[in-house]
Every structure is written in C-alpha cells, then in structure tokens.
Amino acid sequence: MPTLWVDADACPRVARDIIVRAAERTATPAWFVANHAVPLPPSRWVKGLAVSQGFDAADDEIVERIQPGDLLITSDLPLAMAAIERQAKVMTTRGEALNENNIRARVQMRDFMETMRASGEHTGGPRGYSDADRREFANALDRWLAKNR
Fold first, then answer.
1. In the Cβ-directed half-sphere of 80, how many Cα atoms lie within 13 Å?
2. Is residue 4 scored above 90 in pLDDT?
3. Range of the domain at 60
4. What is Dmax (Cα atoms) for the chain?
5. Count of alpha carbons within 13 angstroms of residue 148, beta-carbon side
6. pLDDT grade, residue 16 (50/70/90)?
C-alpha cells in the first residue's frame, strides 16, 4: 500500500480535510509534514510530523522518507521534482499531476517568474482555491487511490 505524503506547510485546509477523509475511507497511511504541528483528527491512518524549523526542513524530511510509488501532495515544484526523481507520484492540491514529462518546464517557468519579481515586475500570485479546485483535487485523489490500492 503506497503512502500519501502531504507538504502541509502550504496545504489548504479544505484539501487537508479531503485527504484525511480519503485516507480514513481507503485505509491509506497519510503523513502531513510541516514546520509546525498540523491540527489533525485522531486516526490510525493519518499522522502529523512536525520537523525542526529551518528552510526546506519539511521538504528534506519528505524526500528522505518517500518511497517509489508513494504519492506526494504539494505545489512546491522543487520538492515535486525531488520526489519524482525518487520514483514517487506527485499531485498538486488542485488535482494536477506532476511527472517527468512536465516538471522541468514548470520549474523553469517558476524560476523565470521569480526572476521577473526580483527585477520589480508585478506578476501577481496564485489564484485563490475555488470550489472547482476542491472538486478537481478530490476527484483526482479518489482516482489515484482507486488505481493504487
């Protein structure tokens, strides 16, 4: 049984609730890793891991523990690339699959936008988490869990 790994530092609460319900329903281990304690219900399947404070400490912990075939839920593109290199599957909290075919282009675009912001260009931020995002994520997670049981 694969494990769900959640980059919990930036995971929207509604996505966290979807993951908790899915882990309970399918008896799938789910680890929420963050630089702080994440409020989670008592569960046999859902666990939290608070790591030491520090830049990328949670990311490093996930990369160290993730196994081939596990699913990482994150929007952090460098973390996603590291997990893909370890043969894990990756999904954003909007239900988008990240894989070896699209991750490099996404990281390059992120780096380009970061350079633009550093030069003073106003590029805006990510759009808000909508009901459509919630549905897409829930459906994508359900499909992944059904396929990987």
1. 22
2. yes
3. 4-147
4. 48
5. 21
6. very high
What burial class does residue 45 get, using C-beta atoms within 10 Å of its C-beta: 0-12 exposed, 13-18 middle, 19+ buried? Answer: middle
pTM of the model: 0.85
pLDDT tens for 104-147 read: 767 676 566 677 667 776 666 666 889 999 999 999 999 999 99
Q: Domain count for the chain, please give it.
A: 1
- How many Å apart are CA 16 and CA 32, to the nearest integer? 9
What tokens were used for 90? Answer: 């990756």
Q: Taking the mean position of all CA atoms in its chain, how far away is CA 128? A: 17
Nearest to 21 by CA among 145, 148, 147, 149: 145
Of 60, 23, 61, the closest CA to residue 15 belongs to 23
3-state DSSP assignment of residue 11: coil
- Which residue carries 């993951």 as its tokens? 19
3-state secondary structure of 16: helix
Please report which helix (H) or strand (E) contains residue 131, including its range.
helix 131-147
Question: What CATH number should be reported for the domain holding residue 108?
Answer: 3.40.50
